[in-house]
């Protein structure tokens, strides 16, 4: 299964709705599940705006001509050569090695397009699969960030920090 990262666009609203309307996918996110296709359209519109502002680099994960997930660089700090990664995958495609490929590709984008040196990811302690994924991609656990962020629908959450020098 070979994947491709492509730029997010308005034509992907149905795909993003399928991904982010899932309780299982959103359980570990700073968002509540999409209730309608309009939620998806607003998400994409906001994503495109942050890309234009060079605050985020968001890509759709393409597999066999289908959008199956999303991955992004965010909190891009160019002068520090640092960025965070975030990702989501349609639950129908979990456990197939797709996200490991996507992380490898987003690291190349970070290095080649933004001169990123340090990639990092924050993960809820309960998100065992994501922590294993990061470790399989050679990210190292750095510690627990207590009540680090105030998430929509979840309140203050503890997050684990993982990083990799690329």
Structure description:
- With 166 residues, this protein is of the alpha+beta class.
- The chain has a domain at 4-119: Aminopeptidase (3-Layer(aba) Sandwich), CATH 3.40.630.
- The protein contains 5 helices and 7 strands, in the order βαααβββαβαββ.
- It has helices at residues 13-20, 23-26, 37-52, 98-114, 128-136, and strands at 4-7, 56-63, 66-77, 82-89, 118-124, 140-151, 155-165.
- Strands 1-2-3-4-5-7-6 form a 7-stranded mixed β-sheet, sandwiched between helices.
- A hairpin with a 3-residue loop joins β6 (140-151) and β7 (155-165).
- α1 crosses α3.
- The longest helix is centred in the middle third of the chain and has 17 residues, at 98-114.
- The chain is globular.
- The model has no long low-confidence stretch (mean pLDDT 95).
Task: Describe, in short, the structure shown.
The chain has 166 residues and is α+β, with helices and mostly antiparallel strands.
Give the arrangement of secondary structure elements:
Layout (H helix, E strand, L loop, with lengths): L3 E4 L5 H8 L2 H4 L10 H16 L3 E8 L2 E12 L4 E8 L8 H17 L3 E7 L3 H9 L3 E12 L3 E11 L1
Parallel strand pairs: 4-5
Antiparallel strand pairs: 1-2, 2-3, 3-4, 5-7, 6-7
Helix pairs in contact: 1-3
So, the CATH homologous superfamily of the domain at 4-119? Gcn5-related N-acetyltransferase (GNAT)
Q: Note the gap between the termini.
A: 24 Å
Strand content: 35-45%
CATH topology of the domain at 4-119: Aminopeptidase
Strands of the widest sheet, in order across it, are 1-2-3-4-5-7-6
Taking pLDDT < 50 over at least 5 consecutive residues as the criterion, the unreliable ranges are none
Structural classification? alpha+beta
Name of the top-level CATH class of the domain at 4-119: Alpha Beta
What is the count of helical runs?
A: 5
CATH level-two architecture of the domain at 4-119: 3-Layer(aba) Sandwich
Bulk shape = globular
Q: What order do the helices and strands follow?
A: EHHHEEEHEHEE
Radius of gyration, whole Å: 15 Å
Question: Roughly how much helix do the residues carry, as a percent range?
Answer: 25-40%
Question: What average pLDDT do the residues reach?
Answer: 95
Major sheet description: 7 strands, mixed
Structure summary, number of beta strands: 7
């Amino acid at each position: 299964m070979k994947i491709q990262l492509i730029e997010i666009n308005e034509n992907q609203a149905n795909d993003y709705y399928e991904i982010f309307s899932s309780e299982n996918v959103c359980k570990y996110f700073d968002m509540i599940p999409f209730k309608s296709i309009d939620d998806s359209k607003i998400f994409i519109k906001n994503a495109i705006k942050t890309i234009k502002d060079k605050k985020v680099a968001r890509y759709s994960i393409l597999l066999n001509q289908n959008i199956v997930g999303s991955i992004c660089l965010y909190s891009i700090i160019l002068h520090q050569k640092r960025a965070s990664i975030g990702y989501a995958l349609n639950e129908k495609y979990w456990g197939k090695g797709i996200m490991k490929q996507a992380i490898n590709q987003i690291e190349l984008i970070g290095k080649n397009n933004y001169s990123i040196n340090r990639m990092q990811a924050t993960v809820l302690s309960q998100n065992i699969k994501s922590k294993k994924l990061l470790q399989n991609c050679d990210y190292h656990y750095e510690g627990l960030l207590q009540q680090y962020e105030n998430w929509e629908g979840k309140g203050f959450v503890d997050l684990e920090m993982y990083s990799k020098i690329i």
